[in-house]
Amino acid sequence: MAERDWKECIKSLKGVVLDMCGVLYDSGEGGGVPIPGSVEAVKRIKASDLQLRFCTNETQATREKFVAKLKRMGFDISVSEVFSPAPAALAILKERNLRPHLLVYDDVLPEFEDIDKTDPNCVVIGDAADKFSYQNLNDAFRVLIQLEKPVLFSLGRGRYYKETDGLKLDVGVYMKALEYACDVEAEVVGKPAPMFFQSALTDMGIQPQEALMIGDDLINDVGGAQNCGMRGLQVRTGKYRPSDERHPTVTADGYVDNLAEAVDIILKYRGQ
């Protein structure tokens, strides 16, 4: 990334939004490992005059468990700073009086404890990992196909993500299968939905043009933020692929090798 291209943008920033998996850490066995320099980078942002929030499509744990894992890695982070899809989906379900059939990872089920799930009239799909069996997908299909107006919520639409042992298929792949089978368009809760980014901006009390999104996913992190009016920076960690920098429709406002480099540049031009 050419630093001069960022000078004016950086000086007008009031807040930073970070993706988590692939930016802060790589997930995997034992909870994953921090990406070198990321723990200190978060500390440096928090010590600056910038506000900081985290937007993640993590749907394999409650926010409380997820944050506890990151704290064990050394990150300075609190639950109130994290925006994730499950609580947002729960709010929508309650507002619309919907009863979900859940195809999600077991550890995220507690997020939906206090909502009626009998005689479901919609389906909520998240990153269910090994629970994406034929039987479980077919059960979700049967719920949707019998509804006069099927409603499908997807907690993100990522194609894949990175764990310590390699790339893994993400929820978007299975979302597309249900969309195709039931002739329905899923309502995405999480990135890249503009409302998801806006919730973090509203919490910080700033406008989109005053915020920078830093992520490893060109489409959902960078492109989603840009569609919301934010700037989007891609790190070359996590799921980043060299071909991202030649993508035909989405171009990041800048590219950096990792979060630590991004923070170096931001704070340099802010004189901090």
From TrEMBL:
Q: GO: which molecular function terms?
A: inorganic diphosphate phosphatase activity; metal ion binding; phosphatase activity
Q: Which reaction does it catalyse?
A: diphosphate + H2O = 2 phosphate + H(+)
The record, for SUPFAM superfamilies, names: HAD-like (SSF56784)
Q: Where in the cell is it found?
A: Cytoplasm; Nucleus
Q: Pfam families from the entry?
A: Hydrolase_6 (PF13344), Hydrolase_like (PF13242)
- Keywords for this entry? Cytoplasm, Hydrolase, Magnesium, Metal-binding, Nucleus
Q: Which InterPro entries does the record cross-reference, listed alphabetically?
A: HAD-like_sf, HAD-SF_hydro_IA, HAD-SF_hydro_IIA, HAD_sf, LHPP/HDHD2
* EC identifiers of the protein: 3.6.1.1
Name where it mostly resides. Answer: cytoplasm
Identify which cofactors the protein needs according to its UniProt entry: Mg(2+)
Top class in the EC scheme: hydrolase
Q: Name one GO cellular component term.
A: nucleus
**Listed Gene3D superfamilies:** HAD superfamily/HAD-like (3.40.50.1000)
Q: Which PANTHER family match?
A: 4-NITROPHENYLPHOSPHATASE-RELATED, PHOSPHOLYSINE PHOSPHOHISTIDINE INORGANIC PYROPHOSPHATE PHOSPHATASE
Similarity-based family: Belongs to the HAD-like hydrolase superfamily.
What this chain does, per the record? Phosphatase that hydrolyzes imidodiphosphate, 3-phosphohistidine and 6-phospholysine. Has broad substrate specificity and can also hydrolyze inorganic diphosphate, but with lower efficiency.
Protein name as annotated: Phospholysine phosphohistidine inorganic pyrophosphate phosphatase
Organism source for this protein?
A: Conger conger
